[in-house]
Please model this.
Amino acid sequence: MTSLIKHTRCLAVLCSWTTVLPCVGLQYTDASIALQAQRQRIEMIERVMPTVVCIYDGNRRGGGAGVIIDAQGHGLTNYHVVADMLNTRRGLGGLSDGLTYELQVLGIDPTGDVAMFRLSGKSAFDFAELADSDAIQVGDTAIAMGNPFLLAEKHTPSVSLGIVSGLHRYQWGQGNALVYTDCIQTDAAINPGNSGGPLFDAAGKVMGINGRISASLQTRGKFNVGLGYAISANQIKRFIPALHAGLMIRHGTLQATVGQHLQFDKVLRDGPAYLAGIRPGDLLVSIGGQEITSANQFASTLGVYPEQWPIPISFKRDDATKHAVVRLAPLSVKQTGEFVVIPEINRRAVKRMLDRFLAATNLEPTGMPAAANLSWIGQRSGTDKDGTPHGAGRWEYQFHGGTLFAQLRNDVDSPVLRQLRCADGRAELIEGQARFSVSGSEALLMKAVHALFDRVFKADSSINLAGFSHKGGDESIQRREDGSIKASTYLEVLKLELPGNKVVLFSFDTATDLLCELTIEDRTAGLGVSIQLGDYQAMDSLRLPQDLILRGPGLDGVEKWSHWESRP
Model:
């Protein structure tokens, strides 16, 4: 009887102890719930374990980890894990199946301590999804995986469990390198070898990439004391297009400093802050729609943006709040050796984006199906540069073989016909029997659309990648009248070089893979025009834009297309 009582007490103590385990960030009232949570956690770990990579150099020496984020084998790790591989860009990635795969280093972010790699050797890899790291809270479950102290002899990662113990931390780097801005703090055990590995949430999504620890230095080496830091997933999302393209990314700077009471004390002349209208003595209010309450928060918030990224900023002067959107200048960073963009990697990123665009619009991989001759027909509304209304005009854009032309009837019954014609990079205006060479905005507009058709839509060939390069990411920002952010969209930007010192930029919405803006610049003439595309709808089995907004000298207006036609 005494033995039974002791056993019952032990079981009660065990159950009581089990109820406070941070299995999924909750407390439990009975053992069955705790055991169910344990099973769910184990199942989640088993599911994501094949996505964790043990990273080695070409001589099979190890020192870090990573995580695969798509089926093609693209993955994320720390810059400092692959820094010694940059001469060859080659290494090995070990997975939990016990095998190693060829690893190629793609783009790098030395300031933010992030790099992208790609594994090869399988038709499809298991991968993990990136979480919305802005939604996590202190106390949420945090699970770290990696290869601490090279313990994963068969590439099976070590797992440690904890919670998110802090948010929006800032960890200084050296020479603008390895700076952890707005990062996640966790008490999950992170040690040397965990670098670059994922920090999972309870659902198995990647909330961050582990990279730094607060350490204790003893005679036997460095080890964790309970504070580890992960780069947030949402910061990394802004850099992913450029990392895919094999670019070296710099972070952005306002070229201005903030002192006590959030007062700008230094503003570099002609820097981003200065061009936004900020002057010494102005008070900082917000960055990117986030209210700033301290100088440390200013540095932490600003540090998550890449160079040339557009960010909304609000500031006060004489009790009046002013709003601006400014593109950040590049922050210099010390980089050992020269980082060279490999054309093969960059072209692969170009093709990847164009393939996604074709799929999103239901186009065939080789272009427009049986529609080498395509017409866009619609009504144009808006005003000319001098304020004159366009009136009820009918535009018709047609593409026949290698020639793109546009027709405009000033009104439905008018016999007057104006034609803009573009072929082989030349643009001309046809009025009746007369032909004129066209320059300026209209010619640039035609050449931009012609480039799109010629490179992507032609039915008789695959996508022509000649002259294309991937420029990385960008953001399209919309603002309300009061200056606050209405909506923002992450973009991937492709650049096409044309003869005559002309450049076409294609901006794709990363959420939909649809083309949302087409811009062409004549760098010799100092002229540029753009077409914003929207309201994509299904027409004749294709998904095509119905709204076009033209921007440029003499071109401001809106064109609403009534329908599309495919002609023999």
About this structure: The radius of gyration is 28 Å.
